[in-house]
Amino acid sequence: MAAPTRHPSPHPGDAAVLCTADEELAAAVQRIAAAAGCASLPHRRTPDPGPAPTGTRARLLLVGADVLTGSRAGRRLPSGTEVVVLSLAPAPEDLWQRAADAGACHVAVLPEAEAWLLERLADLADHLADQLTDTGQVVGVVGGCGGAGASVLASALAGTAAARGSATLLVDGDPLGGGLDLLLGAEDLPGLRWADLLRVRGRLRADVLHAVVAPEPGLHLLSWGREASHELPTDAVESVLSAARRSHELTVWDLPARPRGAGLDALAACDEVLLVVPARVRAAAAARRVAELLAPRTSRLRLVVRGPAPTGLDADALVEAVGVPLAGDLAAEKDLDVAVDRGEGVPQRRRSPLRAWCEEWHEEFLAARALAGAL
Question: Where is the chain membrane-spanning (predicted)?
Fold first, then answer.
């Protein structure tokens, strides 16, 4: 696996700071901040709003009207930071002039301006979440032919990663695939599904993806239900992909066998794509065509060969036939199909070839992330 892109962490002080000695105002602002998804704001009760503590620089400085009264009227507030002057109603008549003289950007009088302040703080919380956690990786899994076992491998990868401590999202990207919730026996569990997100546009809050189905600890599943299938809208796919990178360390995207439209967009966004191929001659021929179809959208395609091999076709022969480098060679697994058909999920037997390979893949995944973090 190629080392994932490392995004620099934001400056430790890139947040909002509240400066006021007015405890009633402070309580109102902290309540709004909590509703916006911000942690408790640093609160300075001193009349001096700056400079910031050593090593920090606030993105947003919330200053109570009391800071600009009396002997402090006419003072200039710190430059280079967005400053909002806050007051509870009724505000002093000259507050706007005093705020302008001090270099403030806005005046917000509560409770009338609560909605505005809530939106501004929510934007800040989202911005910080983007910078702090937009490092999650996406791996796509696609079948080289019908019945190749891509959904089984995707579920096994996701389940193994979650069991080993990685916050993982499993996405059912095939509207006609029957639903990964059935494979995992999660069809009756509560949670959001694709039908709830099809109209999403723009940035999706990361915590929305914690409200999807949770079949196992540490594992979230975005699946189709039993409703009529729909084509995945490109806007919804882009929104979910962006939120997934912010909300989960690993996202496993189960791609349709013949991706098109938004499916190709999801494919192109993957950091790695695993092409699953049974060790059979016709499967190899079909997989080569699929690989050729996917090649313009990704250069990160690797082959996973699944046994049994009725005619003794080995992994090297499959690699040559398909033209894709090898990621793994899985031996046939007893009772796997039965367990999947019963909705019992992927077997977790210690000697399971599938489990063993998924654990190896996860070790490689963790090593790549550690390398990226050291760069």
Answer: none
Average pLDDT over residues 116-145: 81
pTM for the whole thing?
0.68
State the pLDDT confidence band at 371, using cuts at 50, 70 and 90.
Answer: confident
Q: Phi first, then psi: what are they for 273, rounded to 5°?
A: -130, 125
Half-sphere exposure of 99 (CA within 13 A, CB side): 24
Q: Helix, strand or coil for residue 141?
A: strand
362: three-class secondary structure by DSSP = helix
Q: How far apart are CA 191 and CA 211, in angstroms?
A: 6
| Residue found under tokens 């109102």 | 28
Residues 6+ apart with CB under 8 A from 240: 171, 197, 200, 204, 209, 222
Decide which of 46 and 41 is more confident.
Answer: 41
pLDDT digits (tens, 9 = 90+) for 261-288: 999 999 999 999 999 999 999 999 999 9
Q: Residue 212 corresponds to which tokens in the numbers above?
A: 């999807």
Alpha-helical segments (H) within the chain:
23-35, 95-102, 114-133, 150-163, 180-183, 194-197, 234-247, 262-269, 281-294, 315-322, 336-341, 353-374
Kindly state the tokens that stand for 72.
Answer: 């402090």
For the chain, list the domains and their CATH numbers. Answer: 16-132 (3.40.50), 137-373 (3.40.50.300)
Token representation of residue 191: 């949670």
State the virtual CA torsion across 343, 348, 354, 356 in degrees, nearest 10.
Answer: 160
Nearest-angstrom CA–CA distance, 219 and 300: 25
Amino acid at position 68, single letter: L
Mean pLDDT of the chain: 84
Query: Can you spell out the DSSP letters for 348-365?
Result: --TT-HHHHHHHHHHHHH
What is the CA 109 to chain-centroid distance, rounded? 36
Position 297 confidence tier, pLDDT thresholds 50, 70, 90? very high
Phi and psi based region of residue 343 (left: phi greater than 0; alpha: psi -120 to 50; beta: remaining)? left
